[in-house]
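Subject: N-acetyltransferase domain-containing protein structure
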Amino acid sequence: MGILIREADLDKDEGIMTSLLNENRRVSINEKRHEWLYKQNPHGEAIGWIAVDEKDDKPVGATVVTPRLVRIKGKDIICWNCGDFSIDKRYRSLGVAIKLRKMARDGVNAEIVPFLYAHPNDHMLVVHQRVGHPIMGQMVRYAKVIRLNKKMREMLNHKTLADIISGIGNPLFGLIGKEQWYRKGYDIDFGINIEYTKEFDALFDQVSQRYAACVVRNAPYLNWRYSASPLYKVTTLMLRRNKNLCGYLIYYYEESDVVQIKDVFYENDDVARHLMGALITKMRTQRVCTISVGLLNSNPFIEILRFFGFSQRAETSSVIVYPNPSFEYAKIIKDAKNWFMMVGDRDV
């Protein structure tokens, strides 16, 4: 008797998969998430595996892969994005984890898909490496404080004094910020949980030519990934010139005073600077203190962030890419310099 790995039935095993996540994660997972993430993905339904203790037929772990459409050298290719890895605390030996993780690797080796990618935490990174998944790059986080209130309260531990100092400092922050330089030249629009339309397809087709590898950001994908998400509401900042979409930025409020950028896509650096200028200006009026963004360490958007005074934070995480050895683009996708990757491209 030992640990058996079987393929999950997304309908019949929904309760098992949700329970394993809820019992072994710090966040609560609901039924809407299961339906949305595993079954409504426009790139295809998820594939999952469940680890079962044969002694008492008890499910003790699970993981899934969700399909992602990636454009590589102009060709659209379905791959797997690994996620939702969860194991009962009493079974957290490398043996169970490796058995589960091998299922996705074996699928790639069997050419079900040509490659997989993942964004594991430090504990899961060990498992990926044990089954032969190499590190492609590092996800990094950049952040910028745009209002002093929260920082002053943390430093002084005195709300009234902190608010007085912030009342003096915040206007100065606004006056010296480079966002003041980027207020004209484009039509700016903000929309909450918008319906993404064909103009986003056109922008992706145009801009994706600059990158050797990039998750396809067409309207069906964006509508599923962001507008239909049961996890949070997103706001999309759009820039247009002569009524033509030339860039957008997607963000949500992690806290009332913290904004997280999930995705950005733009024609050129001038558009990118105007996107960031518009975002910073808007967030100052909404009493947001910090803007944060996660992205691959080779992403060209980092230069835009640095231009506006964003600084890199300490936390990092690894990106795994594992191709079938015979995949024609294996060398390309294993090199971080070839990717345009944002935090929105990872599992949710």
